[in-house]
Amino acid sequence: MTELFPGRGRTMLAAAATVVLWASAFVVIRIAGAEFSPGALALGRLASAAVVLVALLLLTGTGLPPRSALRGVMVSGVLWFGIYMVALNWAEQHVDAGTAALVINTGPLMIALLGGLFLGEGFPRRLMAGIAVAFTGAAVVGSSSSEGAATLLGVVLCVVAAVAWAVAVLVQKPALAHASALQVTTGGCVVGTLACLPFTGQLVTEAAAAPLPATLALVYLGVFPTAVAFTTWAYALARMTAGQVGATTYAVPALVVVMSWLLLDEVPGPPALAGGVLCLAGVAITRWRPRARRGAAARRDSDREADPV
Fold this sequence. Notes:
It contains 14 helices and no strands. It has helices at residues 7-32, 38-59, 67-91, 97-104, 107-118, 125-142, 149-175, 181-195, 200-209, 212-239, 242-247, 252-264, 270-287, 291-306.
């Protein structure tokens, strides 16, 4: 296996696995969300993932995350495994899977914005222009349906999820300098499960009434897009810059649109697609650099993210 996939190849394979499994999650949430409320679905997904991850932790003899990684594990657990998942589940009750993926994929832009606020990276004109374009796109998506306020609520919830993701990445990256991908993912998942325990009553009631396909969809979300994909994400994030691994998620919306069309016969309308393209264009604007400056900028980014604050 090592010969077939050298270090860089394994990292890219991990990133690719994350992209495909996360894309499937947007579609499967629509299926499970027909029977489970947002909080119950998040708790069931996280509990399923926690069982798998803790078992792996025990089977591999991997210890608990060291104290130096605990802050990142706890904060990312509450934000990404807790708030993000509840907000996404809730959002997908108001918008289709493709639209949700398009809006949430402003996450890399949020990372750049938060880097300017908290890491002293500044607010270059390209960043501000990208933010303006992306949020114009979000507004277009929000006004693209006759459902009006309901769809706007879905878009707002997607933006909340994107912000939670962005903040979680900023705190998760330093934690990966002190703990393995499995340790960080397992710790975050357990913290997220604990944060979602207030939804236990809803989960028990809804699971008792849910048909088998919905329950299997919930377990799938826990095992594959969570236990597997969040671990492969952390593995890639530990070996690439945040910007590099974040850029791989640009493929998620396209995969979600195709999957939702094939499995749900559900495709965003032309205005929503146009707004989604604006969202991604905003992200692209923030990442674009003139050819002559890319090499030097890449070296600066690598040096800065190799020694995160």
